Amino acid sequence: MSIFNTQIRGLRRTAIVAGSVTILLGASAVQAQAATAAGSATVRSAKTLHVSPKGSDANSGSASSPLKTPQIAVDRLGSAGGTVVFAGGRYAKQRIELVNRSHIALEAAPGANPVLDGKGLTPPDDDSGMVDIRDSSNIVVEGLTITGYRTTSTLKVPIGIYITGSGNSIVLRGNHIHDLGNDNPTLGSMDMNAHGIAVYGRNATRPLSNVFIVGNELDHLVLGASESLVLNGNVDGWAVVDNVIHDNNNIGIDAIGFESTISGAARYTGVNQARNGIIARNTVSRIISEGNPAYYEDGGWCNCANGIYIDGGRSIKVAHNRVATSDIGIEVASEWAKGSASDVQVTDNLVTGSRYTGLSLGGYDELRGQAFDITVSGNTLRGNNTLNDGSPELLLQFYVHDTTITNNVIESTKPSQPVMLFRDAPAGSVAENAHLVLNNNHYVGRVPAGQELYQWNAVTQQGLKAYRAASGEDKLSTYTKR
């Protein structure tokens, strides 16, 4: 049986290539194809075992005589691998661990809704998943619902599906992860963490590669300082396509580099970057940090949860996503001074209703890293800054250079304070601020031409003409009152 066929029906044809991964957003399919696997990986054994909450571990594991415990079924597959088919129902307090395994498929029976329910489990210290995949290859997890895995401990990190170490050809498809996380209430502490899906490449010499996360739903996650769906460290060649992520209290999708995922001499090298990836056709909404204890400071909440965040990632395409009603729509930056985000294409996305800003590039203060070789094109930013604090649709922060921002629609719906864009006063060297090009953008507002606002190098300019004169940018761009 083939377990490496990642086709999703009914999408229009667009080809996106990143590294060894090709995604075809086609009229008939989303195809995730890895060069190293020639597009397919098969189970070496025809062995299939069935599990059911009503089964017995004394049974044979056939469809008519299912096992009860998923882990026992996985172990019985042996080294040749095979498939575990889940009947519908609640699998209480049952985690699944795949360690140094290959050619394993965990999949729901046709039409079934199997639920791995972690309610009542005590997670071990450090990171752990309800489905925990470590140093494994040729793995598929499909059609499972995962919930209830919670803690209040800052020493424990509950995760719905956790992929770590090294490995190749891993597919997560059509799973629903909801209502789990870290419920520690300590205000201002960044020590509580949880994830819906986490992919951590922790091996400096062998990456996690050809990882495909397709058509999953992640919602109502309590994340502390962490992310709904994250790729972090030595993850090379991946795709996050057609997922629905909503109602979580921290970042929706994050591609991270330069954290201590890999330490030592390799930390600030390209090995420690999520790279050669695609984030496409996802719907991300209501990603809001207000009420998250980790983001309480100085008597208030930081409105700083991104729908999609490239934090030190490299060679990534962010295309055809919809991000709505989150703190920040899309951000490209690096939080580490020795790090950077580079070779990132942000194209054809729709960002609406962000509380703070629609799109942000560059470090949020002068102690952060650089963002360069960024292409921003064909996006629509509309009706952002619902907090009405004068923040812009488009925010250019520190150390943004060698970047083009063209052919976007940037629309403020504010009848007052219609701030189209804001660029911070440059910091650092000339090279760290050079070659920033804006042109052929279409600005839209609710005020007559000449009354809209642009802030360039932290100085406010009223109207497109004044802004052009001050910046030298957007010479062929337009402004329209609507």
CATH class (first level) name? Mainly Beta
Give a quick account of the main beta sheet: strands, pairing sense, barrel closure. 14 strands, parallel
Give me the CATH architecture, please.
3 Solenoid
Task: Assess the beta-strand content as a share of residues.
Answer: over 45%
Poorly predicted runs of 5 or more residues: 1-20, 25-43
Whole-number tally of structural domains = 1
What's the alpha carbon Rg, rounded to whole Å?
A: 23 Å
CATH topological fold name: Pectate Lyase C-like
Short characterization:
Residues 1-20 and 25-43 have low confidence and may be disordered.
Helices and strands in order:
Elements lengths: L13 E5 L2 E5 L4 E5 L13 E4 L18 H8 L4 E5 L2 E4 L3 E4 L2 E7 L5 E4 L8 E9 L2 E6 L2 E3 L2 E2 L4 E10 L1 E7 L2 E3 L2 E2 L12 E7 L6 E7 L2 E3 L9 E5 L1 E7 L2 E5 L4 E4 L18 E6 L2 E5 L8 E2 L2 E2 L4 E6 L2 E6 L2 E3 L3 E6 L6 E8 L2 E3 L4 E5 L8 E8 L2 E3 L11 E3 L3 E2 L1 E4 L2 E3 L7 E5 L12 E4 L2 E4 L7 E4 L2 E4 L1 H8 L6 E4 L1
Parallel strand pairs: 4-5, 5-8, 6-9, 7-10, 8-11, 9-12, 10-14, 11-15, 12-16, 13-17, 14-18, 15-19, 16-20, 18-21, 19-22, 20-23, 21-24, 22-25, 23-26, 24-29, 25-30, 26-31, 29-32, 30-33, 31-34, 32-35, 33-36, 34-37, 35-38, 36-39, 36-40, 37-41, 38-42, 40-43, 41-44, 42-45, 44-47
Antiparallel strand pairs: 1-2, 2-3, 27-28, 45-46
